[in-house]
Structures are given as structure tokens and as C-alpha cells.
Specification:
Largest interface: A-B, 25 and 21 residues
Helix content of chain A: under 10%
Structural class of chain A: mainly beta
Shape of chain A: globular
Distance between the termini of chain A: 36 Å
Distance between the termini of chain B: 39 Å
Order of helices and strands of chain B: EEEEEEEEEEE
Strand content of chain A: over 45%
Shape of chain B: globular
Oligomer: heterodimer
Number of helices of chain B: 0
Order of helices and strands of chain A: EEEEEEEEEE
Number of helices of chain A: 0
Chain lengths: 109, 124
Amino acid sequence: EIVLTQSPGTLSLSPGERVTLSCRASQSVTSNYLAWYQQKPGQAPRLLIYGASSRATGIPDRFSGSGFGTDFTLTISRLEPEDFAVYFCQQHGPAPPWTFGQGTKVEIK
Amino acid sequence: QVQLQQSGPGLVKPSQTLSLTCAISGDSVSSNGAAWNWIRQSPSRGLEWLGRTYYRSKWYNDYAVSVKSRIIINPDTSKNQFALQLNSVTPEDTAVYYCAKGGRGPMVSVFDFWGQGTPVTVSS
């Protein structure tokens, strides 16, 4: 089973700032099948990125994903007020089990 | 647009069975390409994929090792929904349970639509 470790645990930032979140895998992720989700309190996760760098339908282009192998990054170019949330990575390789990182909380400074 | 509507009790007694249902609109549980998953979230275990059901000329299931001896996920084609059954629950099964749709092709394990979540507490 692939273990995903996200860092940092919490980021305190202001609107307009650039954000970089990290997700490291315990072994290489097949075909860079790495997804990112956003979750707000009381809501289900929302898919942002899949295949490491492909944006899901309707996701603003201020969200971008990159990386390969074991190291992946989610970048938000300019934080909007609605972007303060918890972000999770997930590996979506060809076979189960599919695993998630523990999350990074982006909070208002 | 796919929508998933969950239903089921929020309180289950220890050793009993947790049962939840996920009704699908905008797609078919028998869709030859998608997959229908259950995922749970708790402070201690984080987000945990539990299992899925999918149709590829016949029905298949995959389950997480952690619950494999206790879980059943069944499709109900007459109602276009799928159900989770988790037997012999303990307080460690207390979590928010989500149903989620997996995409198609190589994205079948990308969860692009989610139910609203059902908080389930295991307590006597």
C-alpha cells in the first residue's frame, strides 16, 4: 500500500498569496496517477486535479498540479477567500487500495 | 450532472450492522465504465477507501483489506443505487461515510462525484 505524506500540516496565509502544498509517496506512483481534493467544513471533498496535472471540470486555472514519481505539488497562484480549506492528495493507480494523504489545512492568517 | 444521495441511520450499536444506501441520478449503476465506491473519514484514520462495485459485462467488487471480512457492497439496478453493509461494527467504525463515483477508463479510481456524507456513530 502506498503511504502519502503531506506537508506542511497547516499553512497560515493571506488572500492573494501563492500557496505550494507537498505530497510525498512511499513508493513511485504509477503513471503519476495522483489527485488533489479540496474539502471545506461539513462538505464532501471536491476533485481539483487528477493525473498529477489535469484540472477537473470547472476548476479555476489558479489551481495547478505538478510532479512525478514520489514528489507532487499543488499550487494555488493567488489565494481567493473561498480557497481556505483542507487539501488532500490521493494516489489513483491501476489497482486498489487507493490511499489518501492526511491533509494540509490552509487557514487565514 | 451526476448526483449521489445517501441515506441510512446515524447511530449503530456495537456488534450490529451498519447499512447505508447511495441513490444515483444522472448516471447508471450499471454503467459499463464507471465504478461506485464507499469511503469513510475519521480523525484517527483520515480518508479511507473501503470498497467499490462496478459492472463490466458482469458485476465485480473490490474491498480494502482492513474491512474485507466484514463488508458487502451491492448494486440495486431496479432503484439505480448501491448499498454498503458493514458487519460487526465497533466504536472504531465511527466516521463520516461517503459514497463516490469513480471516473471512466484510467480515471476509474478518481472520485469525481461524492454524496453528502453520513455521520455514523457506533455506540450503545
